Amino acid sequence: MTFPLTRPRRLRRSPALRALVRETTLDPKDFVYPLFFHAGITEKRPISTMPGVFQLPVGDAAEMARTLVQRKVGGCILFGLPEHKDDKGLAGLDPDGPVPRAVREMKSAAPELLVMTDVCVDEYTSHGHCGVLSPGRDGTLEVDNDQTIEILAKMAVVHAKAGADVVAPSDMMDGRVIRMRKELDAEGFADTSILSYAVKYASAFYGPFREAADCAPQFGDRAGYQMDPGNAREGLREAALDEAEGADMLMVKPALPYLDVLRDVRRATTLPLAAYNVSGEYSMLHAAADRGMVNLDRAVLEVLTSIKRAGADFILTYHALHATELLGA
Ligand code: PBG
After folding, report:
1. Which of 93, 109, 255, 310 has the greatest number of beta carbons closer than 10 A?
2. Distance (Å, rounded) from C-alpha 108 to C-alpha 96?
3. Known catalytic residue: 253?
């Protein structure tokens, strides 16, 4: 006896059937939009390596907040460019720096908007590294873990005071989540959440961001603190540590070259999980589309679907507003 031929194509026959059985769908709520606020400008400034992305004056924050609420985007994450930088990144602790000011503007214009802040000193240091430098054993300068987490904990409090709902450390120092949690609790911000960039790789795909946030390292690279692209098990270890330290949500970054890691972390934790579809991933699609190699709209939705399918609950992406438009929302 022969079995009837199973025909998966039966369920692909119409848009209605395809919609009925689609396993992964996108919603504007899935997207968190990264924004760059520059203290020293009054007109928005294009970022040459990221078509459609701008450095914004703080004066544009309120209008942007209203747009994001109206478009029902999940939230935004703020990066700051200060007027002056120093070797310790102390401008990042200024309560009147671009990030705290933009948070206040956004929250007063649109209190319901979810506002996250990136907590890292690289946008504020003259040397562009994600921490304070001190001479290592052989005398060469390296990023000092324990001095750096003190500054990060204070920066988290400055952002929380301004009204950030979520603070997101992106530095990859050890022990920063617990240090930050303690400082936030001690200062009366027990309700401020921590989204940890827990599994962050030393990646070529951050290239355009370093122009956007003006934070390219002036010497060396970030391989001494960000993860080695060959390591997947270590990603699970990083995720477990940050969970144990009290992170409320975890992130894997970048997204596309690390979808396997995203899937692994998804299976290892019950915490909400984010993925950062980073600047190079964004610009790569635009560059290919500009040359007629891929259809931008389709590629954007396909990429974002793949990241969600791999296990992300939400996605930090520069495509947020474009994708929202494509979803017809
Ligand atoms: C560090 C930070 C970086 C990004 C987010 N936070 C840059 C880096 O680690 O070099 C990259 C984001 C992107 O490429 O879109 N504060």
Report:
1. 255
2. 16
3. yes
Asked whether residue 2 is assigned to any structural domain, the reply reads: no
The packing angle between helices 61-70 and 98-109, to 10°, is 50
pLDDT at 139: 87
Cross-strand bridge partners of residue 239: none
| Residue 56: both structure tokens together | 């914004």
Q: CA-to-CA distance for 5 and 227, rounded, in angstroms?
A: 48
* Residue owning the nearest CA to atom 8 of ligand 1: 206
Range(s) of the domain holding residue 62:
8-326
Strand residue runs (E) in 66-192: 75-81, 115-119, 133-135, 141-143, 166-169
Domain count along the chain: 1
Look at residues 172, 77, 76 and name the one whose alpha carbon lies nearest to residue 117. Answer: 77
pTM, 2 dp: 0.97
In a domain, residue 90? The reply is yes
Dist. CA 209 → ligand 1 center (Å): 6
Category of 139 on φ-ψ map: left (φ > 0), alpha (ψ -120 to 50) or beta: left
Q: Is residue 272, in this structure, part of any structural domain at all? A: yes
Instruction: Indicate the top mutation candidate among 206, 286, 315 to test ligand 1's pocket, ranked by most ligand atoms within 8 A of CB.
Output: 206
Q: Examine the pLDDT at 179 and tell me if it is beyond 90.
A: yes
pLDDT in tens, 35-84: 999 999 999 999 999 999 999 999 999 999 999 999 999 999 999 999 99
